[in-house]
Amino acid sequence: MGEEEAKNVEVEGSPEVTAEVPPPTSTESSKDTAEEKAAITPATEEKANDLETLVVVEKIVDLPPTKKNSGGSIDRDAVLANVENEKKMSLIKAWEDSEKVKAENKAAKKMSGILSWENSRTASIQAEMKKIEEALEKKKAEYAEKIKNKIATVHKEAEEKRAIAEAKRAEEILKAEEMAAKYRATGAVPKKVLGCF
C-alpha cells in the first residue's frame, strides 16, 4: 500500500470505461480519502447497433476536510463491491453466452443429423425405386419377348393352315380334273351337275 496503484474497472459492453481509485498512503491516509473520493455515476446511453448500456464513470474531487473521514474506507468498499458485482455480472453474461452457443451448436448438430438422415433415406428410396424400375423393365422385356413369340407362333400356324388349305385346293382341283378326264373317256355324264342347271 506504499505505492499508488490505479484500479481499472471494466464494464461489460464498454471496453474503455475506467474508474481510478488510488489506495491511501500510510502518512496521508486521512487527506487521500477525503481529497480523492471517487463516486461512480452511471449514465445510460443506447448504442445504435446492439442497444447495450454504457456506464460512464466520473471522478468527483471534494475539498479536503480538516477532520479524518472514515468514509474513504466505505467508498473503497463500495467500489470494491461494485467491482465484485461487475465481475459476477460479466461471469453470468459469459455463462449465458456460453449456454446460448451450446444450444445453437446442439441445434445445428441436430439439424445436420436430420439433413443427413433425410439424404440417406432419399437415396435409399431412389435406389429402391430404380431397382423396381429395372425389374419392371426386365419383366416388360420378358413379356414383350413372350408376345413376339406368340405372334410368331400364330404366323407359323397361319402359314401351316394356308399351306394345308392350298394343298387341299390343289388336291381337289387335281381330283376334279381326273374325274373330268374319266367322264370324257367314258362319255358318261356326272351324277351331280352344277346346281344352277
UniProtKB/TrEMBL annotation:
Residues 1-10, 29-48 have a biased composition (Basic and acidic residues). Residues 1-48 are annotated as: Disordered. Residues 87-192 form the Remorin C-terminal domain. Residues 31-83 form the Remorin N-terminal domain. InterPro entries: Remorin_C, Remorin_N. It comes from the Eukaryota. Keywords: Coiled coil. Residues 122-177 form a coiled coil. PANTHER family: OS02G0117200 PROTEIN (PTHR31775), REMORIN 1.4 (PTHR31775:SF5). Belongs to the remorin family. This is Remorin. It comes from Vanilla planifolia.
